[in-house]
TrEMBL record:
InterPro entries: 4CMD/NDH-1_regulator (IPR052512), AhpD-like (IPR029032), CMD-like (IPR003779)
One matching Pfam family: CMD
Gene3D superfamilies according to UniProt: AhpD-like
Domain of life: Archaea
Gene Ontology terms for molecular function: peroxiredoxin activity
Domain Carboxymuconolactone decarboxylase-like: residue ranges: 33-118
Protein name, per record: Carboxymuconolactone decarboxylase family protein
Length: 129
């Protein structure tokens, strides 16, 4: 069962952001190599593989959640990449982050927008103003 969970997780990660997972795996290898496997198995193998929501919707929800945390900039950037990789538009991502100002406050939303802006600029993504 565990191998199946891991394989499903890797399949989802490959669609969303394979470089990010490889980087995480390398960083964690020296301190907690099992953590990378746990990440592949649980969130991406078990949760992201569930029926009911497509990867695009799951990534938008994740961008919203990470924005509200206000302290997970690296993870937010990774998921902005992932959202773009599974079909989200820059406009959808920005709108989700703006909406989080209502629930998490303007500072969290502004920080989220700055993180998204960095990713969009890095990728050369156009944003309709």
């Amino acid at each position: 069962m565990s191998k199946d969970r891991y394989q499903k997780g890797l399949e989802n990660l490959k669609k969303m952001n394979p470089e990010s997972y490889q980087n995480l795996e390398e960083v964690l290898n020296g301190i907690a190599p099992d953590m990378a496997r746990y990440i592949a198995e649980f969130p991406y193998g078990d949760i992201y593989s569930r029926p009911g929501l497509d990867l695009k919707t799951r990534e938008l929800v994740t961008v919203a959640s990470l924005t509200t945390l206000g302290s997970a900039t690296a993870e937010l950037k990774t998921h902005v990449h992932g959202a773009l990789n599974v079909g989200c538009t820059p406009q959808e991502i920005v709108e989700v982050i703006i909406q989080m100002a209502v629930y998490a406050g303007f500072p969290a939303a502004i920080n989220g927008l700055m993180a998204a802006k960095e990713v969009l600029e890095e990728r050369g993504e156009e944003f309709e103003k």
